Amino acid sequence: MSNLFDLSGRVAIVTGASSGIGVQMAKSLAEHGADVAIFARREEKLKEVAKEIEVIGVKALPVKCDVTHEDEVKAAVATVLEKFGKIDILVNNAGVASRFGVLDLEENEWDRVMNTNVKSIYLVSKYVAKHMIDQKYGKIINTSSIFGIVGSASAHLHVYEASKGAVINLTKGMAASWAQYGITVNSIGPSLFKSEMTEHTLFVDSFLKMYNAVCPSHRPGKEGELNGAVIYFASDASNYTTGQILFVDGGWSAI
Known about the structure:
15% strand, oxidoreductase, SDR_fam, oxidoreductase activity, acting on the CH-OH group of donors, NAD or NADP as acceptor, Gluconate 5-dehydrogenase, quinone binding, Rossmann fold, 42% helix, single chain, 7 helices
C-alpha cells in the first residue's frame, strides 16, 4: 500500500518560516520528504532554521523576502524555481496579530495587518500558482484562524478578525478557480497556539482565562498539533479536497 502522506520529491515553500508555527510546518514537511524553501524577512533566523531542516536529510533554501512587496515576492519565487526547478506545495503562513478595535485602531495598523495577513497570500499565490497551472499540479495551504468565523468578547481583535475572514473566502475563491488545473487550495484555522505573534498579544491572563473557559479542551494548542493538517493538505491524501477550512481549535468551532 502506498503512503499517501509521502512528500518525497516534492518542493514546498513556507512563508513566515523564521519562527514559531512556520518553523514547525516547514520541519514537518521536511520530515515527510519534501525539500523546503523558507521565506521571511529575518535572514539570519532563516539560515538557522535551514540548517535544522537539512539535518532531517532534505534540501532547505532560506530566502529573505518581505511577502507584502510584490517585487520581492516575484524574485523569491524565481529563486526557488531556479534552485529546485518546480514548486509543488505553498504554505501561506506569514501573519501578525493586533489587539485593537475599530474605535482605537490607527489606519497604519489596519494596513499593516491586512497587508501581512491577506495581501501576502494574494502576492505569493499569484506567482506560485502561475507555475502550478503550467505543471497541472499544486497544493496551496493558507493559515486562517478560528477568528475568521467568530469574534472575541474579551479582546478587541477587529482587524485581525477581518483579515482572517478574508483569508477564508480568498481560499474558497482560488480553490474554485484552480481546481480545473489540479490545484487544491485549503486553509487551516488554528485557535490559540503560542508563537512570537501571539505570545504578547493573546497569551495574557485576561484572554487565556476566557479562552480556557470557552474552549472545550480547556487549553491552547501545543507545538506540533497543526502538523497533521498541514501534511494532509500538502499530500496526495487530499487530492479531491479543495476550498475547505480545517479548524484545529480544541473543539471551539463545535459550540
